[in-house]
Amino acid sequence: MAENTSLSASGMERVVFLDYLRVIACFMVITVHCIEPFYLGGEGTLIRNMSDAAWSTFLDSALRAAVPLFVMASSYLLFPLKYDTATFFKKRFVRVCIPLIIWSLLYALIPYYGSAEGFDRGANLGRLLLNFNPHSGHLWFLYMLLGVYLLMPLLSPWADKVSKKGEEIFLGLWAFTTLLPFFRQAAAAVTGSPELWGEASWNEFGTFQYVSGFIGYMVLGHYFRKYVPDLSWKKTLAVALPLWAVGYAITAIWFWMTMPKDFPVEGPIDIAVYMETSWQFCATGVAMTSAAYFMVIRKMTCSGFFYRNVILPVSRVSYGIYLMHMFVLVFFNQIVAGLGLCTPLHILVTAVLTFTVCALLARGVSFIPGSKYLLG
Fold first, then answer.
1. How many CB atoms lie within 10 A of CB 262?
2. Residue 23 near residue 66 (C-beta atoms within 8 A)
3. Which residues fall within 8 angstroms of residue 203, CB to CB, at 6 or more apart?
4. CA gyration radius for the chain?
5. What angle in degrees, to the nearest 10, is found between the helix axes of 164-177 and 215-227?
6. How far apart are CA 349 and CA 241, in angstroms?
7. pTM (2 decimals)?
8. Average pLDDT per run of 10 along the chain, which is 376 residues long?
9. Can you tell me whether residue 44 is helix, strand or coil?
């Protein structure tokens, strides 16, 4: 199936809509992180008033698809592999692992603006041996993405040979697993334990372990590329809008209905974790909105002046924007907090400032020799 492409400076073809997708998803992620201070804080959960509660629900529920969109973009472009496994891992190591190591060290050694008190560099560095540290929580995404990359060579032969029906059966099974977050809550309420179908204190690998999670988005990206034709705008919206509306309703209603309404809500992080059940990236509503967004963004194929001068340059440094944005976001969040803006304006202004400054910084750094090791 022909794709709308554009020649890059190196002469390689780019899939135009994926550049739009990276920019949109990157802004979505930054906005999600700008919303977090309005329901997280104190002992873990902190919702000061009804306005914060409503705007957090309304906005964040629409943006949870950001991470799945990144996975689908990677799959659409890379899966199944177009070259040998060694070359694939070498390219991914330079692109993902080296910047991840560098930025993990930076977050471990440099405190956020206004957050130096209690910052323990030794503990942060020690934790990096096993995981990301608390000051770089957004880097969890890279650990997950590396796991997806480890699976790509293994599943590439399957993707090359599987029939459309076979792939649809897998996606149907995966769609069922997006209900697991809700089944876990039901199991906990009925039995006192969230363990399902073979899981136990001595075995965390249940029946659906190997067909659940982000592997579904990897296969979904491939399915879109191979089997979903380029539909007209009318047909695209006829499918995407109802899909998005139902997915959004599932995502938002659970969060709102499980939220305590005696404001201010303040307590352990477990309160927010329970509320976020429908916000999990591999939960039903998020999967539905992710597919809907992907369908619509796929129609963005204009490669004119705006694409060449705004979208493409920002897309090329989008990984760097993601890596650095928490340093900038925390600074602007504290500055904007002093302006006394209403909740949605506070979120929007912080997100726009953070995204713009990070894009400019990353674009500037990209001209430095060897910047690929910092920006990917």
1. 5
2. no
3. none
4. 21
5. 150
6. 27
7. 0.93
8. 48 82 98 96 93 97 97 94 89 89 94 84 90 90 94 94 96 97 95 92 92 96 94 96 98 97 94 97 98 97 94 96 96 94 97 98 94 89
9. strand
- Token output for 218: 């990897």
For the four alpha carbons of 210, 127, 125 and 30, in that order, the dihedral sign comes to: positive
- Chain-centroid distance of CA 173 in Å reads 22
> Which residue is listed with tokens 């480890």?
150
Assigned token pair, 50: 């009804």
Tell me the torsion sign for CA atoms 163, 165, 169, 174. Answer: positive
Query: What tokens were used for 106?
Result: 């930076």
How many beta carbons lie within 10 A of that of residue 18, not counting itself?
21
CA distances from 9 to 14, 262, 308 (A): 10, 56, 11
- The beta-strand segments (E) located in the chain are 5-7, 13-15, 40-41, 44-47, 265-268
Neighbours of 95 (CB within 10 A): 16
Report the residue count for the chain.
376
3-state secondary structure of 205: coil
